[in-house]
Design a protein that fits this description.
- The protein is α/β, with parallel strands linked by helices.
- It has two domains: about 170 residues, no CATH class; about 80 residues, no CATH class.
- It is about 45% helix and about 15% strand.
- The strands form three sheets. It has a four-stranded mixed beta sheet.
Amino acid sequence: MVEFHCSRKAKDGTPVITDLELQDYAEAVLRDYKPALLKEPGKINVDHFLESYLGATLEYQYLYNEEGTPQIAGATVFNDDRVKVFDRENKCVRTIDVSADTIIIDSTLVDEKRDTYVLFTGLHEGGHFVAHPGVFRRLEGQLDLFGGMAARYPSTLRCRRDIMFGRHYKTHFTTQHEHREHQANTLAAVWAMPRPTFIPVAQEAIRRAGFRDGILVYEHEFDLDFDVVIPEIIKSIARVFGVSKAAATVQLKRQGLMMTKNEYMQRRHQMVVAF
């Protein structure tokens, strides 16, 4: 396995790393795991990747949500822990023992037949699994007498649906938690949609729809809810990689293949000035 290395870290252990570095690492992992994924567009086998390559134990459970709290899509267990789940057979909440290095995907996603969400959730948790042990994992026998970082963070990281499945691509963050979620999303996006295959597939679909520059240009974010052409283009791209339209949308924005008209004009201006 290609180990995750980051020379700079925040005080709590969160990696200080650029999107480009994350994407390069994610593709190095794919090159080691299954080079064909960088040559032929297709869907990654998320269960096999997590278990056979990353070395995680994968479980599907009905993760329990407190009433009034956001729905949880998945969780990464960094240290032996007890996790609340909903027992559907007996219609009750119970606590189960879960070993360290376990990734849990919420079974509700399977029941809802959200295969694209299952895939992205698994890869997102895989991102936490490789990038964030320095934040959450406690060494055996480690003492924390003064309320340090080990006391602040839980043994199990639970990840919300709304953060994982949105179509908005953020580049500015105010908390280390937001940085970590973005890092996990970036790794997941590249494992699902690596640049060497995603960009050619996307540009072909975009040009075929009449966008000659190979870039999807739209007026405003809210216009996408009423547009007819662009969602169909995104849907065709998403289908190739087995991801949701939201995940494909964010990856298009991340790779500079989808932007507002203002962003597009600014880019054109910068290119003219550069030459």
